[in-house]
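Ticket #4471: complex job returned nothing on first submit. Input attached below:
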Amino acid sequence: QVQLVESGGGLVKPGGSLRLSCAASGFTFSDYYMSWIRQAPGKGLEWVSYISSSGSTIYYADSVKGRFTISRDNAKNSLYLQMNSLRAEDTAVYYCARDGGTYSLDYWGQGTLVTVSS
Amino acid sequence: DIQMTQSPSSLSASVGDRVTITCRASQGISNYLAWYQQKPGKVPKLLIYAASTLQSGVPSRFSGSGSGTDFTLTISSLQPEDVATYYCQKYNSAPFTFGPGTKVDIK
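Support reply: We reran it on our side without changes. The output follows.
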């Protein structure tokens, strides 16, 4: 069965960096586009970034452009989000999700919490 | 960028009621619209894609309609397990913005 497992979250000071990982299993990872979505405590969903199956096409939300970098390693069935220059407003649960090829996100991981605080 | 709005922001209805949630895009997005359900403390779950196609395993009391700028999610007979926040998401082009959500609970 499809599984997405995020890791790498934690407490970081403003201005710091963190790298999130998402380990995929149960499907052919290299065939699917992937996204990162975040949810601040008590708030709604915010789409963060998207990467095509080959990694050749990447998009970012304006709120993270220039600070976050999405990447993938299809040989390791893994998705990554490098987060630099972190701000308090980046505090959120970060989910990785699969684009099911139907213009929607059909599988989501359990999420990893990132807290940016001094 | 295209903005997504939802109405109402919250609603309370009785078990068995028909519930309708509206999602509006500031520009046309054809039928590139998905709906998600997020129960309290849980991960979002895909309900509907392409505006009206029910995801496998989703109960048939859920339905979606619309095209262009105006979309609706309907629960034909509200059940206690439908208590959740519902989000729409545009998927025609980046940014793949979510709506602000509609919180549904039982009266």
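The interface with chain B takes residues 35, 37, 44-47, 50, 59, 61-62, 95, 100, 102-106, 108-111 of chain A (CB under 8 Å). Closing as resolved unless it happens again.
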